[in-house]
Amino acid sequence: MKSAVWMVLFMSAVFSSFQKINSQLVVNLTVIHNATSLGAVCLDGSPPGYHLHRGFGSGAQNWILQMEGGAWCNDELSCYLRSKTAYGSSLYMGSWNFSGILSNDPNMNPDFYNWNRVFLRYCDGASFAGNSEYRNGTKRLYFRGLRIWDAIVHDLFPEGLQHAEKALLSGCSAGGLATFLHCDNFSQLFPETTIVKCMSDAGFFLDVKDKSGYNNIRHFFRSLVKFQGVEQSLSEKCVNSHHDPYLCFFPQHALKHIRIPYFVLNSAYDVTQVDNIFVPLSSDPCGHWKNCKLNYTMCTPNEINILQGYRSQMLKALRSTKFLENGGGMFINSCFSHCQSEEQYSWFAPLSPKVHNKTIAVAVGDWYFGREVSVEVDCPYPCNPTCLKPNSLIQIVDLQGRAQNLNVTEKNPHKKNSCSH
Known about the structure:
Rossmann fold; 13 strands; globular; disordered N terminus
């Protein structure tokens, strides 16, 4: 009887917490109409936009710029289709729910709740980095991510960004990758007295071969950089150190040349990378990995062993950059997830994932404010009991994170399309 009463009380407390998590702040879209005169436009030619919620109190002079994610487009068809969505046109954009690192609730975002928080909308398809356009008859596509980035930043300057005492450039997924491309030039906007740091959430996309030995993601990023004119946004030092400039679109190559303190937040088994890069359809034409990709608790021992190899490659790539020697930090957990800073349940909540008893929010705060060294690397799956499980209570109340289809799969010319085991 006592255990039943305890369970009822526990469930009531948990659902109460979930209701609070769901009571998010809704922020309207600010459209930069005059950006069109500068050629800073979305794929369809519409003006770019962002969402700003003002800081207050001790955070009134501090700023977070959070770059939206949403995969990429690397050819006419994918970019045209994208231009008919909010990921390619401000005509389809609306208000945005601020949660996680964007929350204004100190109980949900203890270190950054009263900062000026900005969410940059992503409508170019190349991580805010392209600078060209495409014409084919009457069809016209604008690849102006670099100009969009400049237009948003300069629109925010008279709003108070120019007087920032502290600033954090962050982003999720393709937006997380964008922070690697813009971190140093972002820091150059401010005087030396401004504390500027950068963070990527689920943006550390690996330069890695898929499980069949073919490097799909290299082919995808090469075509993306060429098609959208991204090369001018890449680090000059990085480009000079590689025979192919497009390699500097990969975070593990770009990070070696970033001089600003950097924090890498990533799952060691990032579901978007596993599903689309490490085990894409082209490497599994018969669908042997289908059950594992739908529900990781159904992975076979051999599949888990292969995924452990992916984790090892990620940790090796991170260590090779030596970014920790420059005031860097990281939180690499063993949860099957993607984008953890914008979702309240994973950022800071009663059942948030932890590494060494730290939530992501605490780890990031410790790093940014220099409270202590923040290098948290989880043990290999399935050791962490705080990771959310499939069909868990949190998923039942529809708080599951976004998983984005990258569409990076290309036909492997070296592999026969055979369904033999």
